[in-house]
Design brief:
The complex is a heterodimer of chains A (364) and B (527). Chain A is mainly alpha-helical. Chain A is built from 14 helices and 2 strands. Chain A has one domain: Orthogonal Bundle (ABC transporter involved in vitamin B12 uptake, BtuC), CATH 1.10.3470. A two-stranded antiparallel ribbon of chain A has the order 1-2. By secondary structure, chain B is an alpha/beta fold. In chain B, α15 links the parallel β19 and β20. Classes of the chains: A mainly alpha (364), B alpha/beta (527).
């Protein structure tokens, strides 16, 4: 007996919905195995990882705080991936956006008025877009591989931030710690509720709604989907693949930069050598788990944010390595991509095998 | 050499025992079907040792399908293949190579980043060490007049040398039959001459060559025997040296009487709606064709057809006309307005419409619903499909219903993805989508490629009706029957040159065959 993948005539709607669910289920099984292999109780591990964080207000708020940048970045990335632009460098765009958004309160701490915060957000978005446009321009002008260039720029941005907070942007009153000065109230995103949630969460929801409408209803959304699936047909429709590449990268960079600025302004309140636990990379998983669909991304953002909190929880209470969260995130992406095969293919078990082909048996 | 024979096959080969033992390869009744299309219909073919055997036919005649069955890349639906007198099942290219059948493909299968010797080592079952192999490559390639430097990197080599690598790779396996699929289509005349010497040498050593080509003068020059395919069937076998290019061309394209009255054709007296002057464009890839100084006028009310063998510049010409490839403004004119540098949407807004050859992936997006595929080419043409940036799915659905009804597009459920439609139905949709706009200028490449007879008739009639209503229609086709059925004037494209269009009532098939086989270049050059 042999297992065959048979192409479907059309995309399966059922599988489009079901594939992420199957992927999450497979991830849970794999995570249980992982706990078992390391000698921990799998049931307790899964409970602490996936369920307990949902039972308490503090960790629920933390999940929202972590989900916000993931959702924002993943929304931008979905436009890239839908249009066949493989932007892997959102982490760098997040960091560079944060740098650009935060120069105002660091270099001009006296500039405190109603325009401070909006200006920071605008600069953050512009900075992220500019950083993302580097690989986009390289791709359209010189045909370089955007996967490599965007990824390499992540490390450039990270080192730049490291240099700034240890050098010129170090807090003059900070006892030589590698940190910038703490932002004034005018440069801090307003807090919502009593926890760490800030205005960034509703902004992310707004972005999700706008993007969902644009992708589903407008000609631009149509262009994005067509160019991703069939560039030749897109050119026949009169769309320019180069212009779309620039657009998709700029949009993704702007959203990542915005997320970076809001993360610093709303949560950290100062620049640190490291401002992201890999949001830009985790957002890739969020984008795919969410079917590259803004609404799906909103849900997937919470799932992945949960994995951060759950990872911390099992580390604290079971003594598992803190790498467990990254491993489970990686497994999830792996299973999502694998299950997506089922959208356009179905599995068939072929019972009968043809007689052995001549090529295998002959020619001594 | 051993073959896998089932008991039944053994019996049958004994029963057919009177086969000529001198035959190297003897195919009887080979049949291959792809969906609705019978690509090979009971084809018989015999190749002798030391023979250069030509396989002639228009595109779509079934040549590639036939040789793929010999090379183990396709499994026949019926018929038998006997190799050196014994029935065999050739299950894979590796099995074919094991028997002694080698093939040189039209488009090469080489790794550009690797050297010559590395590429060859990859294809050999047991290459041995690289030093010895390099020495063998050097010896064999020089022996056959195809010198190669084993350490060269393929990326740096021109196409002629790349083909040599393929041939030498084939020779190293000491084949008894070499199949060559249009080997000269990428060669300069000088490179071709050298290849012919090698082929003659191989034949003199007893190796047989199955030579696929539509360049008739080549076939006459080097082939001992020719089998001519048309619509999947063997129509003639002959000795090409006893024929003329004209008679070979006639065999290839057929001489059936066509059921369209001459009266349907009318001399065009209207304005020039589509004008092309001095259109030249470089080839952008190694397999593309350079367009050379093309001149053409299509008037209101007429259908001009461009005949020619595939890969002679039809796709490039289409791209230049549609605006997917930009050229100098004056080279293309729509209703006397220069537009060579304008994009496809601009041209559509000037009431031009285009139907490309490739339905899926060019004319339509496979994963998009039909209504979405209507938006694809009509979003900019004032059909009300897009209002302030938003796409009207309702309007697209209405258009889809109209096209489906008017052009008889059959589907299993409403508004399916384009990929689920059969070729003929999708073609009706893609053509219907453009005709529905009543375009003033229509350029269509292969309007009925792979379409069943009923759908083809519907599409052709629609093209004629459009022209008679005052539009200019340019049809690019490889199907001469179709061209004679609908065209008012006929031009021929060959290696990027276009012959001057001639009246369809007076031009003969022989003349078209000669123009296809290279005459168009000479005439265009002389003009």
């Amino acid at each position: 007996m042999r297992i065959e993948l048979v192409k479907r005539k059309e995309h399966s709607r059922l599988m489009t919905m079901l594939s992420p669910v199957i992927a999450v289920a497979l991830t849970l099984i794999a995570a249980a195995l992982l706990f078992a292999v390391t000698g921990k109780d799998p049931a307790l591990g899964l409970y602490l990882f996936f369920i307990e964080p949902l039972t308490d207000t503090w960790s629920l708020q933390e999940i929202v705080v972590k989900a916000t940048p993931l959702v924002l970045i993943a929304c931008g990335l979905s436009v890239c991936y839908l249009s066949n632009n493989w932007n892997i460098g959102a982490e760098g765009q997040f960091v560079f956006g944060a740098i650009c958004g935060c120069f105002l309160p660091i270099l001009y701490p006296g500039f405190e008025n109603a325009a401070t915060l909006p200006l920071m957000l605008v600069f953050g978005a512009l900075g992220g877009a500019a950083w993302a446009l580097i690989p986009a321009v390289l791709k359209t002008r010189f045909n370089t591989n955007e996967i490599l260039t965007s990824l390499m720029l992540v490390y450039v941005a990270g080192l730049l931030l490291d240099y700034l907070v240890r050098g010129p942007w170090r807090d003059p009153d900070g006892f030589n710690f590698p940190e910038s000065r703490i932002f004034s109230d005018a440069a801090t995103l307003p807090v919502i509720g009593d926890g760490r949630m800030s205005l960034s969460a509703p902004i992310a929801v707004l972005v999700v709604i706008v993007l969902a409408v644009v992708l589903a209803k407008t000609l631009k959304g149509f262009e994005i989907r067509v160019m991703g699936e069939s560039p030749r047909a897109g050119a026949f429709a009169g769309f320019s693949s180069k212009r779309l590449t620039l657009f998709a990268f700029a949009l993704a960079g702007a959203l990542a930069g915005l997320a970076g600025t809001m993360e610093v302004s709303g949560s950290l309140n100062q620049l640190l050598p490291s401002i992201s636990p890999g949001y830009g990379f985790t957002a890739i998983i969020v984008a795919f788990l969410g079917r590259l669909n803004p609404i799906g991304i909103l849900i997937a953002g919470f799932v992945l944010a949960l994995s951060y909190i759950g990872g911390e929880a099992v580390q604290a209470s079971m003594g598992v390595s803190d790498k467990i969260a990254s491993v489970i995130q990686g497994l999830l992406l792996f299973f999502v991509l694998a299950c997506d095969t089922l959208i356009l293919y179905k599995i068939r078990f072929a019972m009968a095998r043809r007689a052995a082909p001549a090529g295998e048996a002959s020619h001594v | 050499m051993a073959e896998v024979l089932t008991a039944a096959e053994e019996d049958r080969s004994h029963a057919q025992g009177q086969r000529n033992s001198g035959d190297l390869l003897d195919a009887r009744g080979l049949t291959k079907r792809f969906g609705d299309i019978l690509a090979n219909d009971r084809v018989d073919l015999t190749i002798n040792k030391g023979e250069i055997h030509a396989l002639l036919g228009e595109n779509g005649a079934g040549k590639s399908t036939l040789v793929k069955m010999f090379y183990g890349a396709l499994e026949p639906d019926g018929g038998t293949i006997a190799w050196q007198g014994r029935d065999v099942t050739i299950a894979s290219p590796a099995a074919a190579r094991g028997l002694g059948i080698g093939m040189v493909f039209q488009h090469f299968s080489l790794f550009e980043a690797l050297t010559v010797v590395e590429n060859i080592a990859l294809a050999l079952p047991n290459p041995g060490n690289m030093k010895d192999l390099s020495a063998r490559i050097k010896a064999v390639s020089e022996d056959y007049g195809l010198p190669l430097n084993p350490t060269d990197v393929v990326a740096d080599l021109p196409v002629g040398i790349r083909q040599r690598i393929e041939i030498v790779r084939c020779l190293l396996q000491e084949p008894e039959l070499i199949i060559m699929d249009e080997p000269t289509s990428v060669l300069t005349p000088q490179e071709a001459d050298r290849l012919f010497l090698t082929l003659k040498r191989l034949a003199s050593e007893g190796c047989a060559v199955l030579y696929i080509s539509h360049r008739l003068e080549e076939v006459q020059r080097i082939c001992h025997h020719a089998t001519i395919l048309r619509h999947g069937q063997v129509v003639r076998e002959c000795d090409p040296s006893k024929e003329t290019p004209a008679s070979l061309a006639r065999m290839m394209v057929g001489t059936e009487v066509i059921g369209v009255s001459i009266g349907a054709h009318q001399p065009a007296t209207g304005n020039v709606r589509l004008g092309v002057t001095g259109l030249s464009a470089r080839a952008t890839t190694p397999f593309a064709t350079e367009l050379k100084n093309i001149k053409l006028e299509v008037r209101a009310g007429e259908i001009v057809a461009i005949a020619g063998v595939a890969g002679n510049g039809q796709g490039e010409l289409f791209d230049a006309l549609s605006g997917e490839m930009r050229v100098a403004p004056a080279m293309v004119r729509l209703d006397d307005e220069p537009c060579g540098a304008r994009n496809v949407t601009w041209r559509r807004r000037r009431n031009a419409a285009f139907v490309p050859e490739e339905r899926l992936g060019h004319g339509a997006v496979p994963g998009l619903k039909l209504s979405g595929n209507i938006v694809l080419t009509r979003h900019g043409t004032g059909d009300g499909l897009v209002g302030s940036g938003f796409v009207s799915t309702q309007k697209a659905g209405e258009l889809e219903q109209r096209i489906k009804k008017h052009y008889d597009v059959r589907m299993s459920h409403d508004d399916p993805e384009a990929r689920s439609l059969s070729g003929g139905n999708l073609q009706k949709f893609v053509v219907g989508r453009e005709l529905d706009r009543k375009p003033g200028v229509l350029v269509v490449n292969q309007p009925t490629w792979g379409v069943d007879a009923g759908a083809a008739a519907l599409i052709r009639q629609a093209l004629i009706d459009l022209a008679r209503s005052g539009s200019a229609v340019l049809v690019i086709s490889q199907d001469l029957d179709e061209i004679f059925e609908i065209a008012d004037r006929i031009a021929v494209i060959s290696r990027g040159h276009l012959s001057a269009p001639e009246d369809a009532r007076t031009i003969t098939r022989e003349r078209i065959g000669l123009l296809m086989a290279g005459g168009a270049e000479d005439e265009a050059g002389a003009a």
